[in-house]
Design goal:
alpha+beta, 11-stranded antiparallel beta sheet, single chain, elongated, 380 residues, 7-stranded mixed beta sheet
């Protein structure tokens, strides 16, 4: 029956061709699409719209890159850490378990003014993109010994209203794994666990948010809507560098080389710009200086804002009196921690001393109660 079968198939093909010529094939398809269930019309649709499929398609489209972002390295795991905060049950996170998410790893410490000024942006990004697949992880690597306290870190997290996970890196193990050298430092990790972008210090927030959005889109989680909004304090023009009081990193003192031990300093002349001077009795350590009888500091600065990391022995309340250019500091020029011309020092943290209307040059004199510890000046 081969001949008859071939003749019949030829007739069918002629009929189909005539139907296609008249457009009946598309009408038939439209009728099916309108009347039959979606799972029969397009059975692969749910598979194609799944997160894993979109991520794989995005990888093919971008060839492993997003908006030209290079693959810098495989992201190191969190290692040698201590306590975790803001995770379920305080359990540790791993980058391996976070595959499929975009991870922003932020190295910070709670007495660093540059770090504190970045927190509003991190909080805004966490709130804006968490549901899209962004995970912000703050790696708290301390600069000073008291910053290793879990209680101090917990208070800093609460005071700054951080909701994203934070981990203590007291031995700087994760810091070294990333070969990091800066506070703050941010590493942007894609959904495949690769570092795609880094940024050190403040600023460039628009670019960093674009990186987040681009990596989310590459992972098949393109965010809808506009950019996040953050309200943050921005640094002003500063000429005075960060200045440490401990012997290990002391620079800019007119007293000569600062050596460890119990020292008594004579009354100095007014320091030149961007220098400072000890006066009175001080116990100088490697990273801090503890005030004794008649302890005083003179600082000639150029900045809008002045901050000082301070603490009190035993966390007992002690005071520091401020004078600006030899006069008691005015309320309008005083930082947030100054009340009645004085700072009450209890816990070890960053204290705001001066907040001017703009960058200016002045000489700040600090009179310390015995037992107050000073660590480092920073400016903004």
């Amino acid at each position: 029956h081969a001949g008859r079968l071939q003749a019949g198939m030829g007739a069918v093909m002629i009929v189909v061709a005539l139907l296609m010529l008249g457009g009946y094939d598309t009408r038939f398809q439209a009728a099916i699409a309108d009347d039959l269930p979606a799972f029969l019309v397009d059975p692969s649709r749910r598979l194609e719209e799944s997160a894993s499929a979109r991520e794989r398609l995005a990888r093919l489209r971008h060839d492993g890159r997003s908006d030209g972002l290079p693959v810098l390295a495989a992201a190191p795991e969190f290692t040698g850490t201590q306590r975790w905060f803001n995770t379920p049950g305080g359990r540790p996170l791993t980058l391996r378990a976070l595959r499929g998410h975009v991870v922003l790893v932020d190295f910070w410490t709670y007495t660093c003014i540059n770090c504190l000024r970045t927190l509003p942006y991190l909080k805004a990004w966490d709130a804006r993109y968490r549901d899209d697949g962004l995970v912000v992880v703050g790696v708290h690597t301390p600069e000073f010994p008291f910053e290793r306290s879990a209680g101090n870190v917990r208070r800093a997290i609460a005071q700054n209203h951080l909701r994203y996970p934070v981990v203590q890196d007291n031995r700087s193990a994760t810091w070294r794994a990333y070969q990091n050298q800066y506070w703050p430092a941010e590493y942007f990790v894609d959904a495949r666990g690769r570092v795609r972008y880094t940024h050190f210090g403040e600023g460039d927030y628009g670019r960093k948010e674009q990186v987040i959005r681009s990596l989310l889109a590459e992972a098949g989680r393109a965010p809808r809507g506009g950019m996040a909004r953050a309200h943050a304090q921005h640094p002003g023009q500063v000429s005075t560098p960060e200045t440490y009081l401990g012997a290990a990193r002391a620079q800019g003192f007119v007293n000569g080389p600062i050596r460890p031990g119990l020292r008594t300093f004579a009354r100095p002349a007014t320091p030149p710009p961007d220098h400072l001077a000890y006066e009175g009795r001080w116990r100088i350590g490697a990273v801090a200086a503890t005030a004794g009888r008649g302890a005083r500091l003179h600082l000639a600065f150029g900045a809008r804002r002045v901050f000082l990391v301070l603490g009190s022995r035993g966390d007992a309340p002690r005071s520091v009196r401020l004078r600006l250019d030899g006069r008691p500091i005015r309320r309008r020029d005083a930082g947030a921690d100054v009340h009645g011309g004085r700072v009450t020092v209890r816990r070890h943290r960053l204290y705001s001393l001066v907040d001017l209307r703009g960058p200016e040059r002045h000489v700040l004199t600090l009179d310390f109660s015995a037992g107050v510890r000073g660590y480092a000046f920073t400016f903004g």
